[in-house]
Amino acid sequence: MSNQPVQTVTTSSDKVKVALAVCAVIAGVAGFYFLVGQPTIVRAGALFAGILVAIALAWTSLSGQTFLNFSKEAVKETKKVVWPTRKEAMQITGIVFAFVLVMALFLWGTDKLLEVLLYDLILGWKQ
Questions:
Q1: Is the dihedral of CA 60, 61, 62, 65 positive or negative?
Q2: Which pLDDT does position 31 carry in this prediction?
Q3: In sequence order, which residues have a C-beta less than 8 Å from that of residue 24 and are 6 or more positions away?
Q4: Which residue of 2, 40, 64, 105 lies most exposed, with the fewest beta carbons within 10 A?
Q5: Are 36 and 76 found together in one domain?
Q6: 100 within some domain
Q7: Is the dihedral of CA 67, 73, 79, 80 positive or negative?
Q8: What confidence tens digit (pLDDT) does each residue in 12-25 have?
Q9: Do 95 and 73 share a domain, yes or no?
Q10: Which pLDDT band, with edges at 50, 70 and 90, does 124 fall under?
Q11: Number of domains in the chain
Q12: Are residues 20 and 76 both part of a single domain?
């Protein structure tokens, strides 16, 4: 990812756009619940319209453009990842399961050993 300087200064128009986007989502959700007597497609349309308006408003703001650039760069970086083959993934998973089993047995054994030492030998309590 590119190292871009962090911008903390936003204009008032960007803040207004983001605030309007939040209001559009709230209006969409409110419309969904307000139209309770209408068919589901109408209610879903109101919700979807509110979300679309919010996306359009956020898209034009500086914050939205920054997020869009970040998303594009994240997709580019994800494409660079070398994913393991199925065989490698199964081998790694098997190793992890084996390690967890060995650790579980070790911790169980340690617990039982401490139980015997503490209760039977030191305190003299028989269970």
A1: negative
A2: 92
A3: 50, 51, 53, 54, 57
A4: 2
A5: yes
A6: yes
A7: negative
A8: 888 888 888 999 99
A9: no
A10: confident
A11: 2
A12: yes
